[in-house]
Amino acid sequence: MLVQNLEIETPIDVDIIALDKDDRVIMLIEVKIIQYQETAAKQKIADRMISWMKAALAKMSEERTLIPYAMFVDTEQILIFKWDGVNLSEPLCSLNTGEILRHYEPEFHNKRIFKRYLTRLIEAWLRDLAYNWKSEIPTASEQIEQIGLLPLLAGGTTKSGVEIGGNFIYRD
Question: What is the DSSP string of 32-72?
Answer without folding.
Answer: ------SHHHHHHHHHHHHHHHHHHHHHHHHTT----EEEE
